[in-house]
Design a protein that fits this description.
Elements (H helix, E strand, L loop, with lengths): L3 E5 L6 H15 L2 E9 L5 H10 L8 H27 L5 E6 L1 H9 L4 E5 L6 H7 L3 H8 L3 E4 L10 E5 L4 H17 L2 E8 L6 H14 L5 E6 L2 H11 L4 E5 L13 H9 L4 E4 L1
Parallel strand pairs: 1-2, 1-4, 2-3, 4-5, 6-7, 6-9, 7-8, 9-10
Antiparallel strand pairs: 5-10
Helix pairs in contact: 1-3, 4-6, 9-10
Length: 281
């Protein structure tokens, strides 16, 4: 049950749509929404900032660290004001948390006391995009150990009518199925269940049957299909062909050797899709 949603906030261009996804989903699930903004300590370290000035041919600025800190603090205050306005607009409960430190660590710590994290793939000065598509994304997901909805930079509006779940029978895929079932059942969304028949799925027909039985028991209408091919390509093509608005998938590879890393399929989807994705782990 999703009772509390955390949304990662910064000053990037797609924050409006990221925040909208968090609040709209909260309304669907009758959840509260908490917001977190992290001031990256790297930006408060003068030599790091001064290197930028030197690289552009500009002279050093006296007391640069204080100037940068003041600017970042003002950004945090603006984000807090916007978040509080959204709480009133959507009539949901929640709190805003201003943190300072390592971005991925602080977000992960806050997410531990929430049930779902919503975050974008484009962050201010690439800090958030480094988390999501760079080497530290695995650390964030592993540290959170909670479902994550990733809203890509290319997503320009909120719209959810049909959801595709890529199901392989794993524990993570079952968690994604449970979360999606909660939303689909209460709000009449359409659900597509896709099983990619490859080396990671022992019995594709049985796997689809298991998903179908769970959905039938919860009185959820669904369509199912088995396809064969490269997983990320099949998922993206099926999502496009069936006009889905969101993709849900377990976040890790089924290979035990890859338990410490985000699954290659999920990473490829994050890099290619224009749809929001639910990563369950």
């Amino acid at each position: 049950m999703i009772k509390s949603i955390l949304v990662g906030l910064d000053s990037s261009e797609n924050q409006t749509i990221v925040k909208k996804y968090a609040f709209e989903i909260a309304k669907f699930l009758n959840s509260k929404v908490n917001g977190v903004h992290v001031i990256d300590i790297r930006k408060l370290y003068s030599p790091f900032v001064e290197d930028i000035f030197y690289s552009t041919g500009m002279a050093s600025v006296p007391d640069l660290q204080s100037l940068v800190k003041d600017r970042l603090q003002k950004i945090s205050e603006v984000l807090q004001e916007g978040f509080n306005n959204s709480l009133k607009e959507y009539d949901v409960e929640g709190e805003f948390f201003a943190k300072q430190g390592n971005v991925s660590e602080e977000i992960a710590n806050c997410a531990k006391i929430n049930d779902l994290l919503v975050i974008g793939t484009k962050g201010e000065h690439t800090s958030i995009s480094e988390i999501l598509l760079g080497s530290t994304f695995s650390e964030l997901v592993l540290g959170v150990n909670k479902p994550v909805i990733v809203v890509p930079e290319q997503c320009k509006r909120f719209y959810i009518k049909k959801i595709l779940i890529a199901y392989d029978g794993s524990t993570n895929a079952n968690q994604a199925l449970e979360i999606i079932t909660q939303s689909v059942k209460d709000h009449n969304f359409e659900l597509e269940v896709l099983v990619v028949n490859n080396s990671h799925v022992e019995d594709a027909e049985q796997t689809l049957k298991e998903a179908g039985s769970y959905l039938d028991n919860h009185e959820v209408k669904w369509n199912g299909r088995i396809v064969k091919g490269e997983a990320s390509t099949c998922i993206l093509e099926h999502a496009k062909a069936t006009k889905c608005d969101m993709i849900a998938i377990g976040s890790y590879s089924s290979s035990k050797m890859k338990d410490f890393f985000i699954g290659s399929v999920a990473r490829e989807l994050l890099e290619e899709t224009t749809l929001p994705m639910l990563l369950a782990n």
